[in-house]
Write a structure and sequence with these properties.
There is one protein chain. The protein is of the alpha+beta class. The protein has one domain. Helices cover 22% and strands 23% of the residues. It is built from eight helices and eleven strands. The strands form two sheets. Strands 6-5-4-3-8-9 form a six-stranded antiparallel beta sheet. Strands 1, 2, 7, 10 and 11 form a five-stranded mixed beta sheet that branches. The chain is globular and about 60 Å long. The N and C termini lie far apart (122 Å). InterPro entries: VasX_N. This is Toxin VasX N-terminal region domain-containing protein.
Amino acid sequence: MKNSKQTKQTKPKMKLDAAKINQAAQELSDGHSKCELPIIPLYPVRYGLSIDYLAKAGAGNIKALTETAPAGIGQSSEHSLMQLRQGFVYIYAHTKHRLFSTDDKGKWLVFRYVTNNDDTNSASEFEQLSTGQNAGLNACFLLCKWGEQGANGDWALGQIDTKNYPCISHIKSFNTVFVDKDVDIVDIAYSEYMWSSEIIERFEKDDKLRQIVMTTVNINTPEKHSAPLKDLNIHVLEYQPPKNSNDLSEQTQSWYTKLNYAAIPTSVAGLPDYQETGLMVALQDVVGEMHELQKLLLI
C-alpha cells in the first residue's frame, strides 16, 4: 500500500547578495536621473589679422595687404586666432539636425553670439524677441528659430524640447555651439549679419559656393581648421597665459575690435565635458579684417 502522505518538497533558498542588489538599484537610479544632451560641443573662433601684421601695416612696412585666406591653424604669420565678434554662427548639416534645427527642414542650426550688452557690433534686436528682455548674458550663444517665412521672417529665441532632458530646462544660453553626436560633416560660417532666405537657399543648392563661404569640418577628426577644444589656451590669443596683466589690451588699444584676456568657457550641467569631446573651429572673418585695415587709415 502506497503511503498516502505526499512528501513535502522545499524549494532551495535563494541567497541574496545585498551589496549587488544595492549596486543594481543605484545603477538603475543613475540611468533614470542621468541627463546629458547627445551633442558634440563646438567652440567657434575667428581668424584675425595678427598683432605683428597690423603693427607693420600701420608703420607702412607692408607693400601689399594680404588677400590670402588662412591656410590653417598656426599656418600663417599674418593671422592669429581670436574670440568671435558679436554676430551669428551658421551650421549646415550634410545629413540632418535632429535635436534642434533653426529651419523646418533640419538643415540649418543658427546661433546668435552675444558678447555684452554694450557691444554695438552686429547690432540686432534678436535678443529682445519673444521674451521682451535681453536674454544674452556676457559671451554666450543663443539658439535661433525661424518661423513659416524662414530667414526672411521673425528670428525668435529657440528652445530645445526638454521632455527627454529635464535637467536643461533652465538653460537659455550656451557656452558653445553644438551639433548632434552622430553628425560627421558640417559646414560652418560666421557673419555679422542675419542671412536672408535667398542666401540660405542659394547655399543649399550650390555646394561649391557654400564651400567657398563656409568652413567644412569633420566632427570626428581635427583637421586644418579645427583642434581639440581643450587646446584653446594654446591657440587663441585671449585664452593664452598673459605675459603682463594688461599686455593684450594695450597692444590692441587702437584696434576696431579690442582684445582682452578671458577665462576659458567651463562645462555646464547637462552638456558633455568640453575637455573630453569638444572641438575648437576656426572661421574666416573677412569683414573683421576690413574693419581693422580701415581703422589703420584713420589713425
